[in-house]
Known about the structure:
By secondary structure, the protein is α+β, with helices and mostly antiparallel strands. The chain is built from two helices and six strands; from the N terminus they run βββαββαβ.
Amino acid sequence: MTYYLLLKGDTEKDVIYETNVLGEESFEIFYPSVGFIILNRIINDRPEIVETIKILDEQKNSYTLTEFVDKLAQWKIKKNA
Length: 81
């Protein structure tokens, strides 16, 4: 399952951009992408915009940041070698 990061002004059409791809989960392993790095920077450097974040999966299900983090807690995160 692929997850996407949408910021204020983004639409579902923006999920095609690498910067909007949070990563992919497969067999309880999460493979982060560029969007995951961006999400971490937002949380650490721009917490005031956290409330505007939307997260979608490839089936167009919507998640709050808390719901997504709860899902992440159930998976192993694959780090780049």
